Amino acid sequence: MVLDDLGSSLRSTLDDLRGKSRISEEDVDEVVTQIQRSLLQADVDTGLVMDLSDAIRERALDEEPPAGTTARDHVLRIVYEELVDLVGESTEVPLEEQTILLAGLQGSGKTTTAAKMAWWFSKKGLRPAVIQTDTFRPGAYDQGKEMAERAEVDFYGDPDADDPVQIARDGMEATAEADVRIVDTAGRHALEEGLIGEIEAIAAAVEPDRNLLVLDAAIGQGAKEQAQRFDEAIGIDGVAIAKLDGTAKGGGALTAVNETDSTIAFLGTGETVKDIERFEPSGFISRLLG
Ligand code: GDP
């Protein structure tokens, strides 16, 4: 990580430590306060911010800088390591045959993310297919189909069917030639029992290799209950954060990551199928602090 990634006020505070050979408690407090301010503004959970602050404070004051390391570089390294620990490493997404199930509330960005991920896999040389099982939201079928066409990937759905589990089963058969199947599911406005039961049944039918929770970057602390419920139902292996091109920085999603003991896999940064990035800790950290 370069200092530029840290946000301007934190950067200048760290630069003030440049000439110092020892760091005082006040110096560390100033650094920690600035990090706290940025992270809370980015919707990171207060408890997570406090844990991070304690870890930075303790290490910066207790650990001796290695020989030849300036006080500033020592603190910078600790800050960076603790931030990486907070955001986590990227979810492993092997380039091999697999079925990925997407879960999340209505409007979170699932259908868009399904097409984007399919596009991403196709660019990696695999043959992906999207299976649309959302029979609840009017337009989900058309939207999924249209986006899959734009991504130039296979698509299966049935606008006349009303049993999502049967669509999932049929979709697995119809896309037998694909390497990667991405199964889109219905989301509703709240976490109803019906929704959870439905996704459990779809998971049982398609036997996914990984389940990703799609979250709107603006979710804030609402991420917690959602993540818990989906994790209890199907087990969450990773998170995709959509709509990071807006003002929201996605810090709320870290609550879901923490709750489900998972990691972040993908970031959505726009409305077209190409607006997808693999999560990578340092870029996300600079987004949170910037
Ligand atoms: P679903 O109900 O979970 O399937 O959500 P959709 O995929 O339909 O997304 C809901 C809305 O958010 C749609 O208008 C999408 O175009 C929009 N959307 C999804 N992902 C992104 C993104 O990364 N950036 C932006 N700007 N809009 C997005």
TrEMBL record:
Organism: Halodesulfurarchaeum formicicum
Ranges where the AAA+ ATPase domain occurs: 96-280
Biological role: Involved in targeting and insertion of nascent membrane proteins into the cytoplasmic membrane. Binds to the hydrophobic signal sequence of the ribosome-nascent chain (RNC) as it emerges from the ribosomes. The SRP-RNC complex is then targeted to the cytoplasmic membrane where it interacts with the SRP receptor FtsY.
Entry comment, domain topic: Composed of three domains: the N-terminal N domain, which is responsible for interactions with the ribosome, the central G domain, which binds GTP, and the C-terminal M domain, which binds the RNA and the signal sequence of the RNC.
Subunit structure, as described in the record: Part of the signal recognition particle protein translocation system, which is composed of SRP and FtsY. Archaeal SRP consists of a 7S RNA molecule of 300 nucleotides and two protein subunits: SRP54 and SRP19.
GO biological process, one term: SRP-dependent cotranslational protein targeting to membrane
Protein name: Signal recognition particle 54 kDa protein
Record-annotated membrane-spanning stretches: none
Span of the entire protein shown here: 1 to 290 of 462
Keyword vocabulary terms for this entry: Cytoplasm, GTP-binding, Hydrolase, Nucleotide-binding, Ribonucleoprotein, RNA-binding, Signal recognition particle
Reaction catalysed by this enzyme: GTP + H2O = GDP + phosphate + H(+)
UniProt GO cellular component terms: signal recognition particle
Compartments where located: Cytoplasm
Domain SRP54-type proteins GTP-binding: 97-290
Binding site for GTP: 104-111, 184-188, 242-245
Ranges where the Signal recognition particle SRP54 helical bundle domain occurs: 2-87
Lineage: Archaea, Methanobacteriati, Methanobacteriota, Stenosarchaea group, Halobacteria
EC number(s) per entry: 3.6.5.4
Gene Ontology MF: a single term: GTPase activity
Family of this protein: Belongs to the GTP-binding SRP family. SRP54 subfamily.
